TrEMBL record:
It comes from Caldilineaceae bacterium SB0661_bin_32. It holds the Pfam family ABC2_membrane. It comes from the Bacteria. Coiled coil: none annotated. GO terms for molecular function: ABC-type transporter activity. Keywords: Membrane, Transmembrane, Transmembrane helix. Its main location: membrane. This is ABC transporter permease. The keyword Transmembrane applies. It is a multi-pass membrane protein.
Amino acid sequence: MKTRLPLPLHLQYWDLFLIELSNWRWGWRNLALTGTVLPLFGILLLGSFARELGAYALSFVLVGNLVMALLFEHMGKLISHFAYMKVAGSLDYFATLPIRKNVLILAASTAFFILFLPSLVVVLAGGAWILRLELHIHPLAFAVVPLCALPLAGIGALLGVSFRTPEEASAAGRLLTILMLTIGPVLIPPDRLPDWLVWLGFLSPATYAASALRQVVLGPLTSRLLLDFAVLAGCVLISFRLVDRKMDWREG
């Protein structure tokens, strides 16, 4: 009996990407609604308090809500998706195929990111208009934005396969989202936070994502961007490695 050889990685990715995109094509309206309306309301609400503090504080309101949208929609949807696939047996089916786990996670993340991208653009443009901030989009934004999403994809997949039910996984995801938004200078400037919260923020990928996004959409670029890149890339490797160890699989 011949053993079926795995497809090249790029073909595995493309096939899985099309599967994931077709599975979620019906959910783009809900994704667009919750990924657009909630962050814009957050910008409107927080901006009314922070307007007197100047453009620096308003930059945290804008970018912090972009990160919040990534956490609630991108990471949250991936948590629910992988938790459902675990319960429904879809992961067992994929495990019988000659594909890699990390390719499946990357394909799911890309599909969700593409569906979420229009909301991200609307929140960025609409939030800047509400807060009267001038955008300075740097070409590095095309690399930074996906890099900010990838660690959240790995974390989402990890939480999705680590709990017994989708409800437990979603609850843990919401708790983690709140923690990542409240520790560190994500929504609030560091000079308005207690020192211990600022220091705790260095443990959260949301802090580095917010810092990188502020630099590439509002400017200016600083040497801090190199640190943000390195930490986010490290978070991608760590989270994907943890999922690789946690997810039951029979390598093809």
